[in-house]
Amino acid sequence: MHVLFGMLGFAAVLAATVLLEQRESTFSGLFYRPALLLLCAGPVFISLISHKVEELLICVRSLWKAVRFSTGRSRAVLHEELSRFAAEVRRGRPGEALAIAEDARHELVRQLAPLVVKQYSPEDIERTAATASTVLASGLKRSEDVLTSLARVAPAVGLVGTTLGLITLLKDLRNFDHLGPSMALALLCTLYGLVLANGVYQPLARLVHVHAVATMEEARLLSRALILVSEGKPVADVRALFGGETAESAARAEVALG
Length: 258
Known about the structure:
This protein has eleven helices and no strands. The protein has 258 residues and is mostly helical.
């Protein structure tokens, strides 16, 4: 159904662009309504052909999280909540430790910290952490793919608009009053497509990618910290994990993401 809806939607956008261009009697500058309509709506409908509506909605939510995400702030929250959790476990108060885990702001802490209270083995904690991080990162990876596809499609839609503008220009060569709007559609569609691809969609895709890399790094960090807590190591050893981040960990996350 989404494939048919995407095709029909793109056809409707093309028709609306042609009709709106015929009604435009003047060209006022960089902001030209037919070109804006084609380049704002066209790539979305084309992406709908290859992505379901649910995937596009997930992409919007992931993008909102990525925009608000701060690596330093997230790492500080993880450090603070993990330190409190480890301290309660060391004091032999599993009820308080479980309450801290369940009320944690960090999603991975909520998922993984209760495993220590439930006395999971270090191997089980590590495997569960790997699974949880893979699920989170794969969702972000799919959102990144949506934005990357939009970046690829936008210049192509711009070329479609350029072709439509040139066809209209050739048709109305004797109507000098309409040459300006036709040329505007031909040129501005290419411009809008390049701007959207390189100035909007690609940077947003990169933002989501950085969020995914940070998620995998934090999952590995949390997994190791929880294993130390389950083995009864001092809280200082857990805190020490947050002081030795290297470029190697980021490189490993990049490889894991593909």
